[in-house]
Structure formats: C-alpha cells, structure tokens
Specification:
Aspartate Aminotransferase, domain 1; Aspartate Aminotransferase, domain 2; five-stranded mixed β-sheet; globular; binds pyridoxal-5'-phosphate
C-alpha cells in the first residue's frame, strides 16, 4: 500500500484499487484479448442477461422517459418528495401494514441509508456488528465516520443461523459501549444468499429483548435484495417480528431501489423506521434529514418521481411487478443450477436460499481465485471463501463453474503439498 503524500489517513485502510472493480477490469482485459467465450465474469453485483448486458425493467424505463422536467430537474426536499416517502414505505413493506410509527427518509441508494444509520445510532469509536460473511462496504462506511466493524460467526456447524454467536457478541459489545448498530442483511444475503427464517428472526428478537434497558440498539435490516429472493410477500413475513421489540431497540430498514427497480445508477434508497413511539419516529426523521443535509444534501429527484408514479398507478405497478417476477425467475433458476452442479461435483457451499450471490468456503481464497482467473473464471475472493455472482452469468455458465472450482481446489492443494 502506498504512503499517504497529501491526504490524511484518519485511521482508514485505503487500498490502491477497489478489489471487485480491479477483478472486473482484469476480466474485461482478458475478454478483449481472448474473446467473450473465454471469460466467465461472475463478479458483478447487477442482474445481467445471458449475453452479459444489463437487464432493465422496460416499464420502469418507460416511466423514466415520460417524466416532466419538474420531476427531475428541480431539487427534491432533503428527506425526499412527500409522494416518494409514502411510496417507498409501500415498496419496502409490501402488503404488510405496520402497527408502529413509520417514517422514510430518502438516501442515495441503500449505501447512503446504511451510512446515516451508523452515523446517528452509534458514537465515534464504537463497533458496528455484522456477520463474518458480509458486504465489505460496511467496513468502509464505518471507517469513514470513525467507527469499526465487529463480526460473529454467521453459521453453526449444522448450517443454521448462529444465534448463540450473535447473542455473545451483542453482550460483549454492550458491556463496553452504550449503543450498538446491528446490521442484518436478509433475504438473499450478500455474499451467501441466505435468508433468515421467521424462526431465526424470533430468536434474534428474543436476544434483543434481553438488552439492558439503559442500552440502545438500532437493528438495521439491509434489504437490498428483498425483491429477488423469492415470493415478494413471503419474503416479508418476518416484518411483524420487528414490531415485538422493546423501546430501546429501533428497527430500521435500509431500502435500496437499485435492484428492485433496476435503477442502480440513479442512486435511490431510503431509511425507514418501524418505531414504537411517535417521538422516536420523529427524531429518526430529524436526525436522518440533518445528516443528509451535511453529507449529500438532497437526493436525485428522478428516481423518486419514478417510484412515486409507479405507486400512484395500479396498472403500472402490476406491470413492474410482473416484469420483475420474470427476471427473478431467471435469477433463481441460475442459483438452483449452481446448487445442483455444486452437489454433483461435491463442492460445499455456504447455506444458500436465493439471490444474486453464492459463496464457497475455502482456505486460501486469494490463491484459488488467482488460479481460476488464469482459466478465465473471475470470482471475488473474500476473507473466508469465494463469492460467485449468479446474477451476472448465464445458467449454462452457472452449471460450469462448480466443477471448475473443484478442479482448481485440487490443483491448489497439490501445489501447496
Ligand atoms: C448487501 C448490500 N447492501 C446494500 C447495497 C446498496 O446498494 P445501493 O447503494 O446501490 O442501493 C448493496 C449493493 O450492492 C449490497 O450488496
């Protein structure tokens, strides 16, 4: 890593190049050299068709093209347009009608939503808790604002969500800090594809009910992939459990429109609270809007207008939902294909239910992914394994990858012996 010349390091660990974008760059270079057929680029976190082109919901695209200048050229209010704030709550909760007090505050994508929760519900120097398998920008976001990340082992030996590890870590952290942000990314967790069951959620709630009343917890549900995990209503069956929590535990959903509406580059999301009291909900709105003003001011209005229009027109909403269901089927079929071939090849994968990614536990992820790169297979090495984006490669390619990984694992074991 280079020395800092002019910039301040401020406790951050800043690499020379973003890991995933670096791998993708090398995949593209190989494509230029050897042709598209020689390369499988399973690094990208966007839904691509079988030819590697971005899949865009045409109903959303048409809505975008039909916007009036007032709907995109003028500033949006800091917390989002009133119509967006109402619409995004419906988008996030589906048919579920919360009993608590909800407020939504716009953010630039789910990323901005995560940032504002960490900034407002933890203190400088605090650790934010998430699982050992996690989306690495959590660490980046935390370190940008003087926080760190602590992790618990996500799965037990019998492949269940690891409630005892979560409980122990919450207790450990709350013994030394007064506040805690707990991030749970579900369903279709990145990078494993796991979805907490309703029973998992009940156990999480039981753990949180035991947090001492003088301590404060923000339970951040990162739902970036909620509409790509399976049936949209079934995937929201856990929401009532969030409303059983005591007053010192605030559930907040970090909602992302990036995947659900295929508008990744329009940077649209929201923080949505499910507060037990009006005062907590109003405070939530006030602090998130204050943070927004000081970080990015208002968010892009075009995406807010698109979502507001979709929820104001039942026929359009049905069209968007049906179109999404179709591309979700394609994604889920790819995941199943990968799972089937992994079983045939004897490749162990981390518990997977659906979504954009599958993970493979392994000993030396960097060495294994470097070996696979030479074969034209580009995956993302993580701390505990490799991540495969089934969202970005065809079903045929999903069927090819597991045996190739097994081969590379054998070669790697031979090289190290
Ligand atoms: C786990 C997870 N959370 C949140 C996000 C936020 O995405 P965005 O900021 O594009 O809405 C992503 C995107 O890749 C993600 O993978």
């Amino acid at each position: 890593m280079g020395e800092f010349i002019m910039a301040a390091q401020n406790g951050r660990n800043i690499p020379m190049e973003d890991k995933i974008f670096g791998i993708s760059r090398r995949a593209n270079e190989m494509k230029e050299e050897r042709g598209a057929d020689a390369v499988i680029n399973a690094t990208i976190g966007a839904l691509l068709d079988d030819d590697g082109d971005l899949m865009v919901l045409s109903s959303v695209d048409d809505t975008f093209m039909g916007l009036d200048p007032e709907e995109y050229a003028s500033y949006a209010p800091i917390g989002g347009t009133p119509a967006f704030r109402r619409a995004v709550i419906k988008a996030a909760f589906g048919k579920y009608e919360p009993k608590g007090f909800t407020e939504a505050v716009a953010s630039p994508g789910g990323t901005g939503a995560i940032r504002n929760v960490i900034a407002n519900y933890s203190c400088p120097g605090d650790k934010v808790l998430t699982s050992d398998w996690h989306w690495s920008p959590y660490g980046t976001i935390a370190s940008e604002i003087g926080r760190g990340i602590a992790t618990y082992e996500m799965f037990t030996e019998d492949r269940k969500y690891n409630i005892p590890a979560l409980k122990a870590k919450i207790e450990e952290l709350l013994a030394v800090q007064d506040r805690l942000v707990v991030i749970i990314n579900t369903p279709a967790h990145n990078p494993t594809g796991y979805a907490l069951t309703v029973d998992d959620w009940k156990q999480v709630a039981d753990v949180l009910k035991n947090v001492p009343p003088e301590k404060k917890v923000a339970l951040l549900v990162d739902a970036a992939y909620i509409d790509f995990a399976g049936d949209e209503e079934e995937q929201r069956a856990f929401l009532p459990v969030l409303e059983t929590l005591p007053e010192n535990v605030l559930p907040i959903m970090a909602y992302s429109a990036s995947k659900t509406y295929t508008i990744y580059g329009m940077r649209c999301g929201a923080d949505i609270c499910l507060a037990p009291t009006k005062e907590i909900a109003e405070e939530f709105r006030r602090v998130c809007e204050f943070s927004a003003r000081g970080r990015w001011s208002n968010c892009a209005k075009a995406a807010q207008s698109i979502i507001a229009r979709i929820f104001a027109d039942e026929t359009l909403l049905e069209k968007v939902t049906a179109e999404r269901a179709e591309i979700r089927q394609m994604l889920l079929a790819r995941g199943k294909a990968f799972e089937e071939e992994a079983a045939k090849a004897g490749l162990a994968i981390v518990p997977f239910d659906g979504g954009f990614f599958v993970s493979i536990p392994c000993d030396d992820p960097d060495a294994l992914s470097a070996r696979l790169e030479k074969e034209g297979i580009f995956l993302v090495p993580l701390a505990k394994g490799l991540r495969v984006s089934v969202a970005s490669v065809s079903e045929d390619k999903c069927r090819l990858i597991p045996a190739k990984i097994v081969e590379a694992m054998k070669a790697e074991a031979g090289a190290q012996a």
